[in-house]
Design a protein that fits this description.
mainly beta, single chain, about 75% strand, about 70 residues
């Protein structure tokens, strides 16, 4: 049993293509659900896109997270 808010990482990698960083996560999260897949693209210095896919019970949930800030 995982602790509250903890996760089990099955795969994590950082891949760089020029100035774009691609953090890739695959694992389980007690808080968010199982089979969590979250490939990202970080366009430096201020924009980060994440596509999220996870299982919540018997339902697959899809979401896109956009994080942007002023450096």
């Amino acid at each position: 049993m995982l602790g509250r808010g903890s996760s089990l990482t099955l795969c994590f990698a950082n891949v760089f293509e020029g100035h774009i960083g691609h953090p890739i996560f695959h694992g389980d999260s007690e808080r968010l659900g199982g089979d969590l897949i979250a490939p990202s693209a970080y366009y430096r210095p201020a924009t980060h896109f994440t596509q999220i896919s996870l299982m919540f019970g018997d339902v697959r949930i899809y979401a896109i997270l956009l994080n942007s800030h002023v450096p």
